[in-house]
Structure formats: C-alpha cells, structure tokens
Design goal:
Keywords: Signal. This is DUF4412 domain-containing protein. It comes from Flavobacterium album. With 261 residues, the protein is mainly beta. The protein has a single domain, classed as Lipovitellin-phosvitin complex, beta-sheet shell regions, CATH 2.30.230. Helices cover 15% and strands 61% of the residues. The strands form two sheets. The chain has an eleven-stranded antiparallel β-sheet, covered by helices on one side. The protein is globular. 15% of the residues are buried.
C-alpha cells in the first residue's frame, strides 16, 4: 500500500512538472476568425534649446483588425484582414474598410499579397501592408518548448517608411514564462529598442525600454492578450537647434478567436 501511495504521489508530481512546460507554437487555424483590438495611448514631450518647458502632446487610437482564415487546401489557407477605426480618429477616413489579402501555412507566419483601400494613396498602402506584416512577425515566433522560469529572446528589425524617410527600428524582446494557469501561459516581456533615421540630412537616433505581459492560449496556439508600456528617448538637430523627444506608449492588445460557420 505504501509503495502504491508513493507511486501515485510521484506520478502526480511528474504530471505537475509536465503541466508547467509550454509548447509555444503560434499559428492560424483554418476556418477561424481572429478579431484583434489594439488600443494605444501616446505621450510626447519635445525639448529644444531656449525653451523653458517642454512641448507636450497626448494622443490615442483604437484599431480593430478582423482576420478571416479560410479552408486548408494544398497546405495553404487564404486570409483576409479587414481594418476598422472609429470615425474621427486620425487616419480613420483612409483606414476604415481597408482589406489586406494573403495566405498562410499551418504554423507559419502569413504573407500578404495585396491591399484594397479605396481612396488610399499607393505609398500609404505599401506602408500599412509592411507595418501589418512586421507586426505579425512579433507574434509568429519560432516554435519552442518553455518551462516556468525559462526565457527566450525574439529580435525584430523593422523598416518603417514615413514619406521620403525610412525609420529603422529594432525590438529585442525577452519573454519569461512566469506561470501556467489552466490552458493559459503568462509571460513577462521586457523590451530593449533602438531606432535611427535621417531627416533632411540630420541623423535622428533613439533608444528605449519597456515591459508588459503576454497571455498565450495553448488550445488556440495564439496570444490572446499582450500589453506593453515603452519609454523612448530621441535626439536630433533641426535648423541648427538641438531637440530631444521623450515618448511613452501604452499598448493593449486583445484577440478573440471564433470558429467560422
């Protein structure tokens, strides 16, 4: 009897250890819809020579993307991402109703082919499609097994076109698995960011750090919540005047996944 009890305890202990290991594998599922809501709040402070107080500005927006994933055929799934914003928000007149078309393989990052957006300039179309593609690269990370207390690093370079200027950014994110509750895995995320751009012959450089929490749904193989606060400092020279910019960006992302009928 004692041996049986010991065996049961050992078995339960082993199961408990295994339950604390997560097979982190992000991918779209066929015949599913991913409705993602991203809310951002940004604070900007600009300091320049001769100014007693910094110029401060606050802004915010909410973007909803509805990604419909079709049937799996020949190891590929068609995807359509529709973008919507509340009327009155900056860019809503051009972004609302925009549709991005692409395809995805199981467990792989989607690729976009084209964008339909009546009234949107071609340059802006390319920028939006590129930003959405880069945004997904921060979600569709390589498959790995992670135990509670372990960390992994994801490095994401980004080229962001801003009119005639391209801003180069790099986000080095460290994900640490803090706990597993039910079928949800909770990660603490720390960011180290750098950026640089050349504006009218003047170099702009910046760096920053941030932190947040990501919740990964093991049944859906997808992050359903991802929050982050990032602070950045930038400096450049404009018309012979040194300028410094401080920004604080709070981003809250939630995703609801439903099966298509």
């Amino acid at each position: 009897m004692k041996k049986i009890t010991t065996l049961v305890v050992a078995l339960l202990f082993t199961m408990g250890i295994q339950a604390q290991e997560v097979n982190f594998k992000v991918g779209y599922k066929p015949n599913s819809t991913y409705t993602q809501t991203v809310t951002q709040k940004t604070q900007v402070g600009i300091t320049y020579e001769g100014a007693d107080e910094p110029m401060e500005q606050e802004s915010g927006n909410t973007i909803i993307t509805k990604t419909t994933v079709g049937k799996l055929a020949n190891n590929e799934m068609p995807i359509v991402m529709e973008i919507s914003m509340e009327a009155g928000q900056q860019g809503a007149d051009q972004m609302n109703g925009a549709k991005i078309y692409g395809k995805a393989k199981p467990g792989a990052m989607p690729t976009f082919d084209k964008i339909e957006a009546p009234g949107m300039q071609d340059q802006l179309k390319d920028m939006i499609m590129g930003m959405m593609q880069k945004g997904l690269s921060q979600i569709f990370m390589p498959e790995r097994k992670v135990k509670v207390g372990e960390s992994f690093v994801q490095e994401t370079p980004m080229d962001i076109p801003l009119g005639p200027v391209t801003m180069k950014m790099k986000d080095i994110a460290t994900f640490k698995l803090k706990k597993v509750e039910g079928r949800k895995a909770f990660f603490d995320v720390n960011h180290v960011m750098t950026m640089e751009a050349n504006i009218e012959g003047q170099d702009m450089k910046g760096s920053g750090t941030g932190s947040g929490v990501m919740i990964y749904d093991m049944d859906q193989n997808y992050p359903t919540s991802n929050d982050a606060t990032v602070n950045m400092d930038m400096a450049f020279e404009a018309q012979g005047m040194q300028m410094k910019i401080k920004t604080k960006n709070d981003t809250k992302t939630s995703t609801v996944i439903t099966a298509n009928k």
